[in-house]
Design goal:
The protein has 609 residues and is α/β, with parallel strands linked by helices. The protein has 28 helices and 20 strands.
């Protein structure tokens, strides 16, 4: 008994020393928010920030770090480092910065590719305060409707629709109205997801504390005993929900949001799902001016510290010295390699691209590298359809909300059958579809594109269905590819028109789809995945989370973004915070909490005056 007490005290001291303290600089120490400036809609002006093409002459001298990939996991980390005076170069292979936060324009319609809605953005919350700090207070958020999601189940002749409300009391209250007699199941579901959400702290701790401490927590079983997150992580979403209720529609409503991380409920960790549910409990928001506003307000902070964000800069390999320490990168400029040196290289390109494509062959085979790769697998391929419509949101019946449309309530069977069927069969009947209207969510849209509207439609698709055309020219692939893509477009458009009666084919001015191989081309996703490495049950084992951390087995090479923490906008930023914590030698997660408390105190003081 005494030995157990001694071990616990020693463990506590180690955790306090290495995790809850830190002597490094704090990026959130000063309030850098500035008065709101007028929004810039002029494309030429925005291009100067978001589309700075790579030239060797534009590379700053005496760099402190190079970051590969300008998704929010890379840009966010670059901002954190810039705020403490570090000179950072961010390199992006695409022709614009932002990763999944970028937008593109076709025939006068602007489309977002990855930002559909963000949660947890109440003024006093750490996540909101952190984002305000990382954009100097210039990024504005517009709340969505409440209900923010509509879950639609069943075929047209037997369609059921369930509204999902935000609000810690309203969410369960409204569900109980839809499912009388299921009050106990709804209360227990909410209790479980909240309890999981509160215990996420140990996930960060395993990635920040010294490896021996992390291993001790894992192999003694303490990680699962200390954290309800890890206790529930090994249980599937289907398993937990099926224990709560026999009502199949309620089971579907409990699990519908699995589409935001890409695993069918029977393969999804209940803990991952809980993070998503708690993320939206306080509401949902969309960036005013569209998703590109995020990168647009981060890049000037990086530049102010002497850094740069350069596009059309494909990194083809990471450079190492004789001691096997990362010391720079090689960028392809036409047929020539340009070598750029820095004492630190950070990859936001994902664990598979980093280890399998960017490392020299002899380093790829290192046992420690192979161990990490063996613990992860590629996520499911994403399918996106972009629709430009003639008509205002009022004329088309569009609101600032989202629709999750399913062919029926048996999600596991639906998705499994769909992904394992022949591609021609699956193209005729897509069983799950996310529908959102960026134009209806953005209050600046009408001013920028009067009389027009857009839809973003998202589902999943098997990478193998399209793999044979991966080497074709992205804008002009084979006719067979175009025919297959068109079949998917036609079937999802049919679904949309069935739910939105005011949207008809004659209203469609532009429509196109991005398949998994499109994702590979534009965002560098090895298998067309949109959420990084797979988020199934195995991803949330204590062992994996103690092993896959910002520090790689190679000195001076770090990982940031989705694959370090979890997927999505918030998850990629959590990856940036975790990587920044290691580099700056302080717990930035705790610094964001302190920032929120400080902000709330100052706001309350101002109100009192």
């Amino acid at each position: 008994m005494i030995s157990v007490v001694i071990i616990c005290i020693a463990l506590g001291i180690l955790i306090l020393k290495y995790v809850f303290s830190g002597s490094g600089p704090n990026p959130f120490e000063t309030d850098t928010r500035e008065p709101l400036k007028e929004m810039v809609h002029d494309r030429k002006e925005r291009k100067k920030v978001l589309k700075q093409g790579f030239l060797a002459s534009k590379v700053p001298e005496n760099l402190d770090a190079i970051i590969i990939g300008s998704g929010v996991g890379g840009l966010g980390l670059a901002v954190l480092l810039a705020k403490v005076g570090k000179k950072v170069l961010v390199l992006e292979q695409h022709d614009r910065a932002g990763g999944c936060c970028h937008t593109f324009t076709e025939k006068g319609f602007e489309f977002d590719v990855g930002i559909h809605y963000i949660g947890d953005l109440l003024d006093h919350k750490p996540f909101r305060c952190m984002l305000d700090s990382m954009t100097n207070g210039q990024l504005q958020w517009e709340p969505l409707e409440n209900p923010y999601d509509q879950v639609v189940l069943g075929p047209p002749e037997n369609r059921r629709q369930y509204p999902i409300y935000s609000g810690r009391t309203r969410f369960p209250e409204e569900l109980k109205k839809c499912f009388p007699g299921e009050e106990k199941a709804i209360d227990e579901y909410l209790r479980l997801v909240k309890k999981v959400g509160r215990s996420i702290w140990l996930l960060a701790l395993l990635k920040l504390c010294p490896v021996p401490v992390a291993k001790f927590l894992v192999y003694t079983g303490l990680a699962q005993r200390l954290s309800f997150f890890f206790k529930m992580a090994s249980r599937s979403l289907t398993e937990v929900v099926n224990e709560l209720t026999e009502n199949k529609d309620l089971r579907a409503v409990f699990t519908y949001i699995f589409g935001t991380y890409g695993n069918m409920p029977k393969d999804a960790s209940f803990s991952m799902h809980s993070l998503l549910v708690t993320h939206y409990l306080n509401g949902a928001w969309y960036p005013k001016g569209g998703a590109s506003e995020i990168a647009y307000h981060m890049i000037p902070i990086i530049e102010k510290a002497g850094g740069a964000v350069l596009v059309r800069a494909p990194v083809n390999r990471i450079l190492f010295n004789d001691a096997k320490e990362a010391c720079g990168v090689s960028v392809m400029k036409g047929q020539e390699e340009v070598h750029i040196r820095a004492p630190m290289v950070i990859s936001n390109a994902g664990i598979f691209n980093t280890y399998q494509k960017l490392l020299p062959k002899e380093l790829q085979t290192m046992p420690a590298i192979q161990q990490q790769l063996s613990m992860m697998k590629n996520g499911e391929g994403g399918l996106s359809v972009f629709v430009g419509l003639n008509g205002t949101k009022e004329e088309l019946g569009l609101k600032a909300n989202n629709y999750w449309i399913f062919a029926e309530n048996n999600f596991d069977e639906l998705v499994e059958k769909y992904l394992n069927a022949k591609r021609e069969e699956s193209a005729k009947s897509v069983p799950l579809l996310f529908v959102g209207s960026p134009s209806a969510k953005d209050p600046t849209w009408e001013e920028r594109s009067p009389g027009k509207s857009t839809l973003s439609l998202v589902s999943f698709a098997n990478y193998k269905w399209f793999e044979e055309w991966k080497d074709g020219k992205v804008t002009n692939r084979a006719d067979e590819y175009k025919e297959l893509k068109q079949a998917f477009i036609d079937s999802v458009l049919e679904v949309v028109m069935g739910v939105f009666p005011k949207i008809t084919r004659d209203k469609v001015e532009y429509i196109d789809a991005g398949t998994p191989i499109t994702n590979t081309h534009y965002i560098g996703a090895p298998k067309g995945e949109i959420y990084g490495a797979d988020h199934g049950i195995a991803r949330f084992s204590p062992e994996l989370n103690a092993t896959v951390r910002p520090q790689t087995p190679l000195k001076n090479l770090y990982l940031t973004g989705q694959d370090v923490f979890v997927c999505g906008f918030a998850g990629a930023l959590a990856g940036a915070l975790t990587c920044g914590s290691v580099i700056l030698n302080r717990n930035l997660h705790l610094d964001t909490i302190a920032l929120a408390k400080k902000t709330k105190f100052m706001n309350d003081k101002l109100k009192g005056e």
